[in-house]
Structure formats: C-alpha cells, structure tokens
Design goal:
Radius of gyration: 17 Å
Oligomer: single chain
Structural class: alpha+beta
Strand content: 5-15%
Bound molecules: glutathione
Length: 214
C-alpha cells in the first residue's frame, strides 16, 4: 500500500488541490475513488461515520492520521515535505488569506457553477447561474489583479496558495461555458507556470473516474 491514500474523484477541483500537491512533492500516494455522482457516497451514513463527518472529499489518510479540508491537507504536506511552504509569519498568514479567499469566493463559486452546468440531475435555474457567474467574475478579477507583475500569488516562488487557487482552473472550457484564460489575461500565464512544475498532471490524469459514467 502507498504511504498516502487520497479519497478523491477526477471531477473534483477541491480534491485536485491535494492530489496535485502529493504529486508535486513526489509523494508515494494512491487515489481511493469516491463514487460522488452516481452513488452519492459522501452523503451515506457509512462515509460520514467512517471517512469524513463533514461529508466531503478530499480526505487524506497517512498512517493513523486522517485529514480533511484541502487547506489543512496542503498545510500538512508542505510542512512535512518543506515544499511549497510559505516561509515566516508574514508569508504564512498571506498564504492563508489567499487560501480562505479561494475556498470561499473563487473555487467556492466555480465548483458549484460547474456542477450545476454539467453534473446536476435537474437543469439549473438561470437566475442561480447568473448570480454565481457574477460572483465568479468579481473574484477572478481580484486574482487577476493580484497576479499583475507577480509570477505566483505570493511573489516569485510557488506556494500552497497557488496549488489551492488553481483547483478548478484546468478543467475544460466547455465545462464552464466561459474561458477563464481569455477573460483574465494574467491567469493563463500563471497556470502555465504551475503546469511547468515537475510532476504536474491534469486533474483528469491524476485522479480516477474520468470519463464519468452516470
Ligand atoms: N473546503 C473543502 C470543500 C470540499 C468539498 O466541498 N468537496 C466536494 C466535492 S468537490 C464535496 O465533497 N461536496 C459534498 C457536499 O457539499 O455535500 C475543501 O477544500 O476540502
């Protein structure tokens, strides 16, 4: 068995953060596929009792330790590996600031938007999509501005803030119906810089369950 197990599924940008980090640090890890869509696995009493009481993926298992919330997983892995770690109090707080913003307002809206457009059983209400798209546009503009003149979110070096922020950004344009790179000129080059890191892989290569069979 690999050193780390990651409960995840290919379509999850939240889980991609953890999967990408594991790969970038060269960890010995294996995906444990979560039947999120057809089986509704994260909603089952068994999953909530045995895997994650919050009913979410990703979950990282490392020996006796079980960690959830991608921000916690990224922090743990960066501290263990010494890679992509913000250095000193100011950088640590700055990384946390961007990770919280990402979780709530960037991927926190992109994820549900893409879910409603592609995977939800019922057709999405146009008003709901319009609301989410407005929030997404506003948040992506803030990220785009932050990347003006910076290679990565904290400066010249990639950190867990970048690995968190890119969660949903590599999924195909068709799954969103809009093109993040075309609409925000600093985001594409930043994504290319992350994708140029050794051992970077696309979410659909890194995690199991693609293509989705419903
Ligand atoms: N903030 C969490 C979000 C995790 C999350 O929402 N994961 C989705 C899958 S992409 C999930 O399991 N959702 C279940 C639900 O909301 O019921 C993280 O970053 O780990």
């Amino acid at each position: 068995m690999a050193e780390y197990q990651l409960y995840c599924f290919a379509q999850s940008g939240n889980a991609y953060r953890a999967a990408l980090m594991l790969n970038l640090i060269g960890a010995d890890w294996q995906p444990v596929w979560v039947d999120f869509f057809k089986g509704g696995e994260t909603r089952t009493p068994k999953y909530r009792a045995e895997v994650n009481e919050m009913g979410e993926a990703p979950v990282l298992v490392h020996g006796e330790k079980k960690l959830t919330q991608s921000a916690v997983i990224l922090t743990y892995l960066s501290e263990r590996s010494g890679m992509f770690m913000p250095k000193g109090e100011d950088e640590r707080l700055e990384a946390l600031r961007w990770i919280v913003f990402d979780n709530q307002k960037v991927n926190g809206y992109l994820g549900p938007y893409r879910f409603l457009k592609n995977f939800a059983k019922a057709a999405a209400e146009p008003e709901v999509l319009r609301f989410l798209k407005g929030r997404i546009d506003g948040s992506l503009a803030i990220v785009n501005k932050r990347l003006d003149g910076r290679a990565f979110l904290l400066g010249e070096r990639p950190t867990i803030a970048d690995i968190s922020m890119c969660g949903y950004f590599y999924f195909p344009v068709e799954e969103f119906g809009f093109d993040i790179r075309a609409d925000h000129k600093n985001i594409g080059p930043w994504l290319d810089r992350i994708a140029a890191l050794p051992r970077w892989r696309h979410p659909y290569e890194l995690m199991t369950g693609y293509p989705l069979k419903l």
